[in-house]
Amino acid sequence: MPQLRLDISVSLDGYVAGPNRTVEAPLGEGGMQLHEWVFGLASWMESHGVEGKGATGPDDDLVREQLAQPGAVLMGRRMFSGGEGSWQDDPMAEGWWGDTPPFGMPVFVLTHHPRETLVLGGTSFIFVTDGVESAFEQARAAAGGKDVAVAGGASVVQQCLRAGLLDELQVHVAPVLLGDGVRLFDGGEQGKLEVLRVVDSPTVTHVKYRVVREA
User: Max CA-CA distance within the chain?
Assistant: First the structure.
């Protein structure tokens, strides 16, 4: 059975973005520090079309595993463009990634504002207005038997947890304290997690959890 999986970088104090987010700084003040561990990895560079010889090792192995699993992606409007409201007023209405996004698969974007499917390179962005359950069902149908990845942001992760949709979480804990910003969990989530794996390196600690279902 295909699963809904989350891979996300988070600060030691629980934030996935810093304060004062803008279009120019979508991760807020200090937020880019959460992802510094991944930018030089061979797997990340290859998936984003970056030339050069990247680093290999345990961190790279985990990212390769993560990239190979999904057949579709689920994300929120803020993850797609950083905007809100009418698409006509969104300066990043085509997304962050230019003409060749790194996904290469269907991406389902949760939004309150209808829009026709946007095709860029090998990626199709499908905009869903009738809730996270509908978005997940559409993503699962499009994934061709593979898993569905939750790309964020925090609000979509919280919605997936509350709806009982999320199966696994892999949290990449960066040795950073942001002090404020967007929390991965806002305090309204409940449930039990089972630790499946812990991998550490000098720049990040990876903790993989399974969501324990009620009997």
Answer: 49
